[in-house]
Amino acid sequence: MALDLHKRILSAEVQSSKAGSQVIVAGWASEVKSLGKIAFIKLRDREGYLQLVSTDFKLIGRISKLTNESVIIASGKVQKSKAKAGGNELELKDFEVLSLAEPKLPIDMSGKIETDLSKRLDYRVLDLKNPKNLAIFKIRSQANASTRDFLLANGFIEMQTPKLVAAGTEGGATLFQADYYGKKVFLSQSQQLYKQYLLAAGFDRVFEIGPSFRAEKSHTMRHLTEFTHFDFEMAFIKDEDDVLKVLEQWFVFLLKDLKVKCKKELELLGTALEIPKLPFPRVTYEECLKLLSTISVKLKFGNDIGTDDEKKVGELVKKKYKTNSYFITKYPFGLKPFYIMTDGEVSRGFDFEYEGEELASGGQREHRVDILTKQIKGKGLNPKDFEFYLMPFRYGMPPHGGFGLGIDRLIRYILKLENIREAVLFPRDPERLMP
Ligand code: 4AD
Ligand code: MG
Q1: Residue 186 domain-assigned?
Q2: Does residue 348's CB lie within 6 angstroms of at least one atom of ligand 1?
Q3: Are residues 323 and 191 in the same domain?
Q4: Beta-carbon neighbour count of residue 33 at 10 Å?
Q5: Which of the listed residues 163, 223, 310, 361 should we mutate to test ligand 1's pocket, taking the one with most ligand atoms within 8 A of CB?
Q6: Is residue 432 in some structural domain?
Q7: For the domain that residue 91 is a member of, what is the CATH number?
Q8: Does 269 map to a domain?
């Protein structure tokens, strides 16, 4: 190769280079146009597009043989573009083909032809070439980084917990099971057990951003069989409101940070992030039922609020509190897992809701082993099956609470994506294991 790859600069750097300077760029020839006396290559790289132009007949001949999506390295002189959009372009001096693409592409990535999501996912790598998709994953990457920044600054320790586990924590119905040298093994549904272990060990504040697995045979816009779980737990809380305070502060910090650090990507997606006001309303479960009764939805204490009604609660809350971010608190214990602390029938479990959809679930945990044992029995479960869970509670467990939140849902909701699958690189659902 005659052109030096180490001298490559990105398209965005060409925009800030002086006219007349000689540069080297590399990327994909997203569009190639040869018009006889002039030829254009619309080069795409990680930072965007750059127009390469040539009036040299030898180069024009070579350009006309170039296929869309071939990878090239090119050298040329920076000049002001005559196009309406302005900016800089490159007057091509030379180029080399590093990888020639086949002439027919299975899907259109330019966004000009609409392709249904399922087909896009079949050719996900090609689909990800669309700069709008790259923007989604740059934002997702920053969201994880901002989350880490916030938590590490607030005394949290990042953990990595096992994904191959001997038992479930979120109910048997959604467990994936496999063979483990003749024994049963399950894919972890949540970090619940391990984050509590670490608080028993004295870590005080922990979090993880890692995969969780749910055998949910549902085909919805918000369920996957593998999702990225942001799980969080803190010790020495007075009640669940201590957790809500950190959660709402993290959420506002995150949105503000993304607004600054992902300005370009958000503009490309045409998405304005709305920053909700602190504190978020604490809407009790009882209040949700009352709000629903005003639109003639009659639910009794203990009834689950289904997806459609949950959405309606979102609209009613928006009307009353002028916000899209709120907590549903004080759920009946019957609707929450055995490990949540209760005050009689009412539990200390909550959900974090965004636009009427669940983004996180959490609560204060029961840390007193005798009461916890009773709660396990109360749910019709056998405490003997939970000895692995109960053991650390016998040797000093502080009062504690936390939550679990789906990063995939988070990205979907804040970017207003129609389907959770658009927020995941290679989504997994009951039908999809490839690519
Ligand atoms: O509501 P979930 O099941 O709660 C727990 O896992 C508890 N251990 C949390 C706690 O600390 N008490 O899951 C937490 C969040 C959900 O609110 C949702 O955002 C996401 O994880 N989630 C899923 N995301 C995509 N696909 C699925 N199948 C999901 N299941 C849960
Ligand atoms: Mg939940």
Answers
A1: yes
A2: no
A3: yes
A4: 12
A5: 361
A6: no
A7: 2.40.50.140
A8: yes
Taking the C-alpha atoms of residue 122 and residue 120, their distance in angstroms, rounded to an integer, is 5
> Is residue 37 located within the same domain as residue 143?
no
Are 72 and 221 in the same domain?
A: no
Q: Could you tell me if 327 and 233 lie in one domain?
A: yes
Residue with tokens 């999809």: 432
The residues pairing with 80 across neighbouring beta strands, listed in sequence order, are: 88
Residue with tokens 């399950």: 186
User: Does the C-beta of 52 come closer than 6 Å to ligand 1?
Assistant: no
Tell me the HSE value of 210 on the side-chain side, using a 13 A CA sphere: 20
Copy the structure tokens of residue 33: 């146009």
Q: How far apart are CA 130 and CA 373, in angstroms?
A: 53
Considering the domain architecture, whether residues 68 and 143 belong to the same structural domain is answered as no
Q: What is the pLDDT of residues 46-97, one digit of tens each?
A: 999 999 999 999 999 999 999 999 999 999 999 999 888 889 999 999 999 9
Residues 75 and 189 in one domain: no
| Mean pLDDT of successive 10-residue stretches along the chain, which has 435 residues | 93 96 98 95 96 97 97 98 90 98 90 87 96 97 98 98 91 92 97 96 98 93 96 98 98 98 97 96 98 96 96 98 98 95 96 97 98 95 91 97 98 97 97 96
Phi, psi of 371 (to 5 degrees): -70, -40
Cβ of residue 403 lying under 6 Å from some atom of ligand 1: yes
Indicate which CATH number applies to the domain containing 282. Answer: 3.30.930.10
pLDDT tens digits, 163-195: 999 988 888 889 999 999 999 999 999 999 999
Which ligand 1 atom minimizes the distance to the CA of 405?
15
Which residue's CA is minimally distant from atom 11 of ligand 1?
Answer: 403
Indicate if 83 and 137 belong to the same structural domain.
Answer: no
Domain that holds residue 367: 127-423
Closest CA to 2 of 121, 93, 86: 93
Helical residues (DSSP H) of 33-174, grouped into ranges: 57-63, 117-122, 124-127, 131-153
Residues lying with their CB under 5 A of ligand 2, a single-atom ion: 361
Ligand nearest to the CA of 404: 1
Q: Are strands 226-235 and 183-187 parallel, antiparallel or unpaired?
A: unpaired
Residues 331 and 387 reside in one and the same domain: yes
Does residue 429 lie within any of the structural domains? no
DSSP states along 338-358: TTB-EETTEESEEEEEETTEE
Q: Count structural domains, the chain.
A: 2
